[in-house]
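Need a sequence for this fold. Nothing fancy.
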């Protein structure tokens, strides 16, 4: 992918990548890590806690994880594109309280089955606040890489939505999605998805 100036994001992004995902031709975690100043990418199946995965001390109470449970964001019609949920997978009563004060977010990178493996092998994730995505558009991957749910996005797209919410505007999301469009075009120029606008 063409070199671009890194994005100075405020919310720290920790990407936990399943080892098998590294072999995917259109995996986006490494590209996302390269685009963000405040991010870390670690590959493996399990870590003892958040600090162990992050490589430094961290207050788990100020971190969230993109949740993979039974929540179905399509039912959250009145909610935004990033929704805080409780342990039952329902929208938290006080969204502002759940979304404010976050230091970082953990994103699980892999196919749906691989991401679920990461979730169950790392019980410390249960201590983090839970976020689900409620995207307005399907993944830009289109037919290149199928997703099992409408809200299932590439790692880069998921992080773009999260940073759009927490870093205060659409500019970072637009830059990340533009990078994804370039990545898809460079990987398979003849199969690039047709034109959704970059700024979603």
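Here you go.
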């Amino acid at each position: 992918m063409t070199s671009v100036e890194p994005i100075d994001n405020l919310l720290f992004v920790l990407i936990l990548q399943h080892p098998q995902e590294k072999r995917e031709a259109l995996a986006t975690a490494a590209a996302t890590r390269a685009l963000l100043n405040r991010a870390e990418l670690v590959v493996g199946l399990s870590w003892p806690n958040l600090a162990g995965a992050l490589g430094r001390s961290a207050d788990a109470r100020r971190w969230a994880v993109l949740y993979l449970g039974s929540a179905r964001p399509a039912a959250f019609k009145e909610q935004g594109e990033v929704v805080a949920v409780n342990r039952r997978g329902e929208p938290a009563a006080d969204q502002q309280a759940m979304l404010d004060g976050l230091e970082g977010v953990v994103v699980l990178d892999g196919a749906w089955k691989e991401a679920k493996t990461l979730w169950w092998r790392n019980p410390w994730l249960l201590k983090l606040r839970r976020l689900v995505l409620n995207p307005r558009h399907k993944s830009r991957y289109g037919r290149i890489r199928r997703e099992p749910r409408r809200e299932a996005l590439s790692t880069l797209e998921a992080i773009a939505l999260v940073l759009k919410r927490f870093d205060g505007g659409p500019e970072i999301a637009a830059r990340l999605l533009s990078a994804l469009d370039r990545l898809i075009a460079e990987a398979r120029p003849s199969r690039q998805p047709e034109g959704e606008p970059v700024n979603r």
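For context: The two ends are 22 Å apart (CA to CA).
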